[in-house]
């Protein structure tokens, strides 16, 4: 049986739910999925699922670290307008001004979260994810 390895980009610092870490911690590039499953006390299917989900977490974390380009800012502004109305443009301008040149998606979302109530933030993030930005 083939050995299993961590998804590319996964590190000890990648935030993963415990349910994934308890499996992925046994993946060392030398063990096969049956051995990892035995050590983690899960099924082989659970191992494969955990590796796929870990890859998704890595991709999400990578997306959050990417810089906010003018095109991304424009798309996020459109989404924000649909959530909060015409004040969105001012909110986005203020957030981008506060963050400066090196603004990342994660930093922008954190800054906007301070201005939005929980329902608005949920609707905003849902649309950001639906459009593939997160």
Description:
With 134 residues, the chain is mostly helical. The chain has helices spanning 18-24, 33-40, 44-65, 70-84, 88-99, 105-113, 118-130. Helix 4 packs across helix 7 (118-130). The protein is elongated, with a radius of gyration of 19 Å. It comes from Deinococcus navajonensis. InterPro entries: DUF8082. This is DUF8082 domain-containing protein. It holds the Pfam family DUF8082.
Task: Describe the structure concisely for a colleague.
With 134 residues, the chain is mainly alpha-helical. The protein is 64% helix and 0% strand.
What is the count of helical runs? 7
Rg, alpha carbons: 19 Å
Strand residue content: under 5%
**What's the β-strand tally?**
0
Helix content: 55-70%
Task: Return residue spans where pLDDT drops below 50 for at least 5 consecutive residues.
Answer: none
Main sheet attributes: strand count, strand direction, barrel closure = none
H/E element order: HHHHHHH
The span between the termini is: 34 Å
* Structural class computed from helices and strand pairing: mainly alpha
Compute the average pLDDT. Answer: 89
Shape: elongated
Domain DUF8082: 74-129
Pfam family, one: DUF8082
InterPro entries: DUF8082
Protein name: DUF8082 domain-containing protein
Looking at this protein, list some descriptive labels.
134 residues, mainly alpha, 64% helix, DUF8082 domain-containing protein
